[in-house]
Amino acid sequence: MNNHIPSTDRGNILVVDDTPANLRLLAGILNGKGYKVRPVPSGELALSAAKGMPPDLILLDIMMPEMNGYEVCEKIKADERTRDIPVIFISAINDVLDKVKAFAVGGVDYITKPFQMEEVLVRVETHLAMCQLRKKLQQKNDELTVTLDELHATQHQLVQSEKMAALGQLIAGIAHEINTPLGAIRSSIGNITNFLDNNLETLPVFFKE
After folding, report:
1. Any idea of the CA torsion for 169, 174, 176, 182, to the nearest 10 degrees?
2. CB of 127 within 8 A of CB of 88?
3. How far from 141 is each of 81, 136, 151, CA to CA, in Å?
4. Is pLDDT at 207 greater than 70 in this prediction?
């Protein structure tokens, strides 16, 4: 018996639409291609779902009661936890100004209803791939930043070591310069001491002459 379970590693998608038929249709299309789909019927539920478990992508209807898609997208982009999630608008509105507004509030794409299954899948796959590339790029940038910080720290340690070595050489040089006259002074003192030891008794006679 084959207990194969369809993979959901392709992406986690939040679908937001107040029309149950649209939710079922989109969920069926995406589930059939191995995506994990969370359908929600309102803007408020979409925000709660996105914050509770951030999806990889959001398909968002515009015309919804209480909170429309534009407002939902603005709130998603205003929250640090969800602002990087790509949002694709799906709407029956086909006006240029509405599309411009969709991009202005943070949307990455716009699909007009009635949509074609192939178009939805291609756009979803494209934006998920772009999102993964951005994440990998950010990860590489973070790794490079850590490596650069480590190099700076190592460089600082090397500079400090070189400074200490140079300071040691300077101190050794100064000590040598000091020791040279000290050696001469010690030698002179030694000569004077020897002279006095040998001639101390005759000095009074020497000074009387």
Report:
1. -160
2. yes
3. 20, 9, 15
4. no
Paired residues of 54 in beta bridges: none
Rounded Cα distance between 43 and 65, Å, is 8
Q: pLDDT tens for residues 46-70? A: 999 999 999 999 999 999 988 999 9
Q: Write a three-state SS string for the chain.
A: CCCCCCCCCCCEEEEECCCHHHHHHHHHHHHHCCCEEEEECCHHHHHHHHHHCCCCEEEEECCCCCCCHHHHHHHHHHCCCCCCCCEEEEECCCCHHHHHHHHHCCCCEEEECCCCHHHHHHHHHHHHHHHHHHHHHHHHHHHHHHHHHHHHHHHHHHHHHHHHHHHHHHHHHHHHHHHHHHHHHHHHHHHHHHHHHHHCCCHHHHHHC
Q: Domains of the chain by range and CATH?
A: 12-143 (3.40.50.2300)
CB atoms within 10 A of CB 100: 10
Provide the mean pLDDT of the chain: 83
* Contact of 49 with 40, CB cutoff 8 Å: yes
